[in-house]
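Troubleshooting: if your tokenizer reports a length mismatch, compare your output against this known-good record of 271 residues.
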Amino acid sequence: MRMSKEFIKRVTASNGSIFTGPGTNSYLIGKDDLTLVDPGPKIDAHIEHLINLGEGRIKRILVTHTHRDHSPAAKVLGEILNVPLMGRLLEKDDSLQDKTFKPDRILEHGDLIKTNECTIETIHTPGHASNHLCYLIQEEKVMLTGDHIMNGSTVVIAHPDGSMKDYLSSLALLKNYNFNKIGPGHGDFLEDPMAVVDWIIDHRLERERKVIAKLKLSSSVTSEDLVIGVYDDVDPKLHPIAIWSLEAHLHKLLEDGIATFNSANKTWSFK
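Known-good structure output:
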């Protein structure tokens, strides 16, 4: 096994925020036959930095998903470098997507991208986004997870393109693969990946149990009121963001037949 720090280079864009943490990670994979994963936002300095690091060796660009902090630089770099773009198209349109991304190759679950130096396996992991992909660099045993798994915070799941049910299933799916390190879309590399996956699943299910408990206390409640009790361990300033994941939990409970929704007054109830 190669040393991942040498073979996989993490480059962080200067777009740090409450959503992106220290910034979006781009990854350069390889030594001479380079693959760029998640070129990131359309920031001139970041794009120029990636071009300089690539030194003409970038042969293809892969995208985990089309949120605007991950894929907009793909179109620019694809045209400058004259290399193919790979990823998935959006399944459920919303206002959070980069619509400039037009893949030359649409990747399906299980597709293999074979370079002169490694094999990259495509894993379809809907949940954070319907078109989300993770990439396993097989020889390195490193999983690049985009926004499926982040370091430093949990992932926002925004209905309707985001799905909590799909997210939990996609997390469990990763446990079928052989890898010993996670390269997240935000933050540093993560060791002990199975423990990380288990923790996220447990955390989400515990949050779901809390949602159910709070629903049982009221005949009907709005998301705005429910978030106060369900996310009482989170800074109230973050509740406008937390409500997205809360509603993803609620829609999962709706699918599971545990909750009901009254569209007339936009309230939720325990069934």
